[in-house]
Structure of Proteasome protein:
Amino acid sequence: MSTQSSRAGRARRPAETATQRLGRLLDLVPWLLQHRGVPIAEAADEFGVSEAQIVEDLELLFVCGTPGYGHAELIDAQWDSGHIYLDNADDIATPMRLTRDEAVTLTAGLQALGSTLVRSEIAERTLAKIRAATASLAAQSTGRIALDLDDGSQHPAMATLKEAFGRRRRVHLTYYVATRDETTERDVDIMRILNLDGQWYVEGWCHRANDVRLFRLDRIESATILDVDGTPPPQARPRDLDDVFVPGANDLTVVIEASSAAAWIADYYPNEGVVRGSDGSVRVTLKVADPALVRRLMLRLGGQARVVEPPELAEAVAREATAALAAYGQTPP
């Protein structure tokens, strides 16, 4: 085919995206290996493109290969006779297979995703395909890939919350506030259900607080669907939860004193202010959505930090620390 006719063919074809072409090339390689010597016209007909496009694809494949990109690694494509012969492309034509680690990661992610979706059929179908595809991996190792993840389904409120979220209905929650040792009644428009730091939460617009709130699933004592539209108001915005200490306007204010060894918290977490002592210690003021996050931080830091305010949170931390030490037969200082 002449250069002039090839250019004319390109001019008549609609624009093709790089993604579309890549998809065709990935299909073209194994097909040509299975149809050795196929005429260019037949290949063009099979893939629904012009003969000129097939030639362009072959010209591109001719400079593709595995890392190293020397003569031995590049695909060998011949088509001068009008028939296509492809060699040295077996590695590229071999379908990609998941490693066991990749399969476990995808399985865990899909299980977590499926548990938060109201209509999780797609995630479930994909999960089934991955498990089927990794059956050979299981046969070669210790057994079938199965993860026992806490998807929240064991909590009696989860099904009700997902139904309310799917139907866009408001829910009435009976919710325990640990820092005040108080059970509260709240009407909530659900915005999302998510897992954060190994704990399940419901995020929604709380009509009692008139603001966005995070509710821990294990502290929801009961949930009832109301016959009221549950669409959050326009001012409701999901929190940026990349950092669990991202402050909200009406969050709990917490003051922490930390020794020089734990002074890094002043730089690591967004805060409302820091007072630094001459010995390297810090006094940090934070705003947090869930006091449990502070309690976990204090337990992790051990004796290097303590909660100063509010006093009820300081007492809660002390109780948890005492219980943890008692489990090891130790007495708190």
Q: What stands out?
A: Confidence is low (pLDDT under 50) at residues 1-13, 141-149. DSSP finds twelve helices and twelve strands in the chain.
